Amino acid sequence: MSNSRELADVLTQIRLGEDSLVEFKRIVFENDRIKGPNTESLCQEIAAFANAIGGRLILGVDDKTREVVGIELDRLDEVVGWVERSVHDRIKPEPTVYLRRMLVPDRAGIECAVLVVDVPRSLYVHLAPGGYFRRQGSSKYELPPNELLRLMQSRQRAGTLGFDEMPVLGCTRNDLVPELYDRFIGNTDEPAELRLRKLKLLVPGEPGEEWVSVAGVLMATATPHEWLPQAYIQCVHYAGSERIAQEQLDAQDVRGPLDHQIREATAFVLRNMRIAAFKHRGRVDVPQFDPDAVFEAIANAGAHRDYSIPGAPVQVHLFADRLEITSPGALPNSQSVDSIALRTATRNELLTNLLARSPVDIVVVARGRVMEKRGEGVPQILGRSERLSGRRPRFELLGDNALRVTLYAADPETSPLVRDVYLDGLHYPAPGRGNDAQDQD
């Protein structure tokens, strides 16, 4: 269903009420059909979000009282099907939506089922029954002809861009931090504003306006999550092999510029994983996971995730027997899990170019820049992890909305590293011994 952080986010939104990004709707049944909201109203709300900056529709909450009224569990499938059909049949072109079923407590503490419909900002302009609508404040409005023309012109241009080049509405030049963008500008006599435009950190918005791009927000603002709420990495360390809240040993939501997030999420794993020491004609440190493989997997997740999906951070979950890194979005450009190690495909070209100019600054990671763009990342994850644990990492698609890579923990008793270390002189520097570190004679 949902983890505790997602539930907390939804509860907070319900308590605060509707705004530019959140709309509530009560589901009302009459005999064997859904009476409210009517299909036209539902489609208008979804199209209005897609035509603006995206948003979230929560079905099962009263929009006047903010009361969680829920949806009957035995009718939840019916509501899901109704939303999917309505979007497919009544909105042109069909927008992308993400549906999630959640259990949310009402005021008496009783869990009720709700349906969360996340609508990302679209590259297109969507026609709903009754016209073209856009979200403004806590309500929608029908676009007058002059605004519709400007929006279509803007989106037509944006349709040729990657999402990371898209403007972020409301984020201006004043929100950029000089210390962060100076590292990309370099030594030049050109005015900073001109360089920011050439680097596509500043891009044209709708006519007469200039905003920071998605990549600019991620790399050159201090708090990207204020503009893109999904732009953070959720790190959790569990004692066992399951996601059990009571077994959490450490947790951190890593925010800030993306390269900082990648470094901090890697540091989270390295300080929490166990380092065993094997003694045989000298000491060999055997970490649970290869530091370079960990860094590469987290960097790939942050760089190549789909930032158009709202409410979905990158997840780094450390278990006793494995490390799972989940990245929102399916594989880009017709890639498959079978071909991922064979060919390179980039979802966020501008963003990866900026990361290729960002230093790593992690002692135990043997690379200079966050991204090296040589197509060697996935082969390194596979090869170094298998060399350490004896098990090949697993890449898997979770439906159409996420990619997960699983790195398996090394057992010092059976690790190929211990067997081979005296043959090739390979040695892993210990990034810090955890509480479970042990010496084996």
TrEMBL record:
Annotated ranges, domain Schlafen AlbA-2: 18-143
Keyword line: ATP-binding, Nucleotide-binding
Pfam families listed in its UniProt record: HATPase_c_4, SLFN_AlbA_2
The keyword ATP-binding belongs to this UniProt entry's keyword annotation: yes
GO molecular function, one term: ATP binding
InterPro entries, sorted: RecG_C_sf, Schlafen_AlbA_2_dom, Schlafen_AlbA_2_dom_sf
Organism: Lysobacter hankyongensis
Designated name of the protein: ATP-binding protein
